[in-house]
Amino acid sequence: MLSELTNYTSIVLGPETSRNKLSGFRIVPISEAQAMLLLITDQGHVDHHLVNLPKEVTLSDVERTVNILNERLVGVPLDELSSRIPTEVKELLVGHVENSERLSSIVFDTLKNSNQEKVYFGGKTNILNQPEFHDVAKIRDFLQLVEEEKGIYDMFRNIPDGIQVKIGRELDNDLLNNLSIITATYQIADERVGGIILLGPTRMEYARMMGLVDVFSKDLTAVLTKLYRDQQK
Questions:
Q1: What is 20-114's CATH topology?
Q2: What is the pTM of this model?
């Protein structure tokens, strides 16, 4: 919505994995060969992963695995799960679940994807409509930059609270010398969890764009806080 209203590129940073703790796993059978594995955090975030089940693995095996994981790992930070499973869960899986090795592999793949900080783009190519990006080399470099989500997350992870503006060379990135960013953070309850970035040309209408980013920051905080509190009831 923000990118559509502005015709610029918008970026939302999800919560850092170190701030998230496991609230629980859920399993939703889809067929004998597939299931949806849900990972839920204490901040209300849900990661869903469609997993293919080998023929020798039954849904009953998967349910036992999920029950053991919930019993042992609820409350553990997401970035510690991979190291805690071999020490706290492996023996239980071997003792109570057939095909435990195959299931452990499925769970580890799910955790690996869930432990990555999330970056969400709106209008990723909108910025290329600006005159500053009529140079093919600049287009190529910019697309390479936004494709590297880890780099984008690291670039903006420490944005300050409140509405902030940085212009051109203040961004310390040659690819962004002709651009500006407007940033804000959002919260769940009273805890800061992520950021919003609007990327546009240095000649953007700053007053209007700052107002839009501020509204989206407050609305996102309100929606996520309500979801979180509803889940806690």
A1: Enolase-like; domain 1 (3.30.390)
A2: 0.65
Sequence ranges of the domains in the chain: 2-16+117-232, 20-114
Q: Where are the alpha helices (DSSP H) in 89-190?
A: 90-96, 100-114, 136-147, 149-156
- Two structure tokens written together for 222: 């309100």
Q: Which two tokens stand for residue 227?
A: 């979801």
| CB 157, CB 13: distance < 8 Å | yes
**Exposed/middle/buried for residue 224 (C-beta within 10 Å: 0-12, 13-18, 19+):** buried
pLDDT digits (tens, 9 = 90+) for 123-177: 888 877 877 777 777 777 777 777 777 778 888 888 888 899 999 888 787 777 7
DSSP summary character for residue 118: P
pLDDT tens-place string over residues 85-133: 777 777 777 777 777 777 777 777 766 666 566 788 998 888 778 777 7
d(CA 8, CA 127): 5
Superfamily of domain 2-16+117-232: GAF domain (3.30.450.40)
Under DSSP, is residue 82 helix (H, G, I), strand (E, B) or coil?
helix
> Position 158: which residue type?
N
Asked if 29 contacts 51 with a C-beta cutoff of 8 angstroms, the reply is no
**In sequence order, what DSSP letters do the residues of 13-75 get, joined into one string?**
E---GGG-BEEEEEEEE-SSSEEEEEEEETTS-EEEEEEEPPTT--HHHHHHHHHHHHHHHTT
